[in-house]
Write a structure and sequence with these properties.
The chain has 7 helices and 30 strands. It has 661 residues and is mainly beta.
Length: 661
Amino acid sequence: MGNIFGMDIRRFSVLFIAVIIILTLVSSFSNYTPSSTNSTTKIEVGTGTQSENYVQPKFSYVYNKTITLAPELYDLEYIRADFANTSPPYYNLSKNAYIFFNFSRTTNSTLQLLLNLLSRNASEITPGAYGALLSIASSAYMNIMKYSNTTLQPFPLNPNDTENYSKSELNVNYAKQFQGPAGFQPGWSYPPSDKITINSPVIEIINKTSVTTKIRISNLQSNIFYIGQDSYYNGVVWVYQFFYGMSVTGNISFYINNKEVQSQVLNVTFGPYGGSCAGNISGSAIVPPGVGKQVYGSYNITTVGAVYGSYRPGAVTIIYCPQGPFISTRGYIFNWYEYNVSVPFTIQVFNGTDPTTTIGNHVYHTRTVNGSFSFSVWSSDPQNFSSKIITYDTIKIANYTINRIWNAGSIEIIPKLNLQKSGNNINYYLTFDVLKNITQPPSWIYQPMIYNRYAAISWFYLEQNASLAHALYEYIMKTISKTDQQFWKFEYFDLAAEYTMYTFNTTYNAFNNLLELESFYENWSVVPAQILNLSAWPSLKYETGQLSLFNVSRIPGIYNSSVYFNVTGDSETYLVDVYNALGYPGWNKVPFGNSFYFGPVGGRTVYFYLNQSGGELPYLGETLNFFDSNYVPSIFYATSGTVYGTPTKIIAIWNGTAWIS
């Protein structure tokens, strides 16, 4: 047997750990043959096809099944993950390494995360990272040259073997030889982006409208009326003063473009010293583009004070009386102007497969767009003008169409009123500000995308394993008895272990692929330990290796009963020796752990590490003690290096944190 479990976790395609456990069928079930009635159906499981043949005995059935795996990108739907802690734009972590997914957080499916990342725009993801994602997507274009098959033997989960697994086989057809694409698929490209140049606006007055106002006062009448008098002696003569006022009446009419629109009565009174009465009259005029604007005219009525006097001996008479009235009116010419505004621009579209750029209602299909934002506006109704610049592009991956959008921003032209008066002319001019809210492409868009064929192959393995995992789950759920459903993960664990042991011929591949399969449903912990090298047996040679701890829920009592450390109620199984199981001929590539029925050495049961305390799944930093279990001295087993126990601290808990290309 080979050197034990010192697995080289150096370069995972998807960072999965694996370790092998399978319990060979207890011999007491080998001679059971039920009577049966046959029926055949075909169903779909995962992305593979399965044929089923049911043989119904008295109290159970034989469930013969063949699963043909047909991996595709959709199988990533079965893998739960979340985005990694690395936030956009996903720069290189090293020269050719990127971390995208965190498999320890299982909020979303990996497929949806992948499609989401591929829809990111050029400001959110670099070409290197996008090329790595397209390399993953290239797994959908594998050329499968040869299929192979392996036969899995399910295990009974109860002493009565109500599933009759001892007479059942599960055949799995899988891709044995395949070839990845030589490069990216035609039409695949980095997402588009726009480089935009905005020039100064060109402004031209193209039209003018005027409104003339006028005020006319008619039926004007004035009347002098007596107010009162007083007298006083100034030391020389008596002074007598008389005071008169003036009332003015009439009609005031307001005209817009020579059309009377308003009339009002004039009635104003002035005192002895005169005065003035000024006012405006306004009205609404409809001007282009059909808006109402207030216009006005003004008038002024003035009287001046006049003094009249006479003298007689000993007395002076003074009369105060206003003169007038003096009338003045003023009309105005209100002028509004229509402007044509044009803002020239140039847009250069980078990357994309077949990008389409929209600017307002205009659509462009070229890589270089020369045009202008043009609009007309009246100074009577100065509205802001804005237009968005968006480039659209799509990319086809397998059966998925991914939309890529570059939102380049917008141009907003803001007119501001500039009122100028010149004599009776009131001019409403406009000035214009151009507000540029433009997103220019990042500097990295000129970098190349690099195809990684190994990433495509690695993810194809992942998809095939995901397809198998889903198929095994469907198989178990259709065959397991209701009383044994609590053990379904344990059975899945056994079948997945068999598949990797019978399929892969190197420890490295079995290690990666099985732990990948197992980790669809459970997490693993890894601890360093001194483990017996069974390949050196009977010499007691120990090597530093790793123990993997897997939470397999409750192990069925049919197996617990034969284990030295009773693990009923325990949820940990400690597994060893993938190297040995593969390398030592006596094991015939049968994985082991927990307990194992070993025929070649007398049919005795092999005992391996079990958690004596029976606690929860160990945590990072916890120290465990493993004890010698060599009370059966004549069989092969793996053990710690001392009978007093070896403190072993957990140094890593695998949770599938990332994919690294």
